Amino acid sequence: MLNTFVKTAFAGRKAAKQRQTGRFHKAVPSVAQVFPRLTAKVFARRYLQSEHQILRDVRHSETPFEVIKCGAGYILRLDATDAQGTRRRCLIVPGHGGHYKQFLRLIRNLHKNQFSVDILAFPGHLGKKRETCSMRSIAQTVRTASKQHGIYHLLVAHCVSANAVLFELENGPLSARYAFISIPLKLQNLIRSGGELIGLAGKSLSYFIKQVDALGAPYQLDKDWYKVAESQSAPLLLLHSTNDFAAPFEDIAPLQRTWPAAQVTLYESGDHNGIVTSKRTVDRLVTFALDEADRISA
Question: Where do the domains of the chain lie, and which CATH numbers do they carry?
Answer without folding.
Answer: 2-34 (no CATH), 54-186+227-297 (3.40.50.1820)
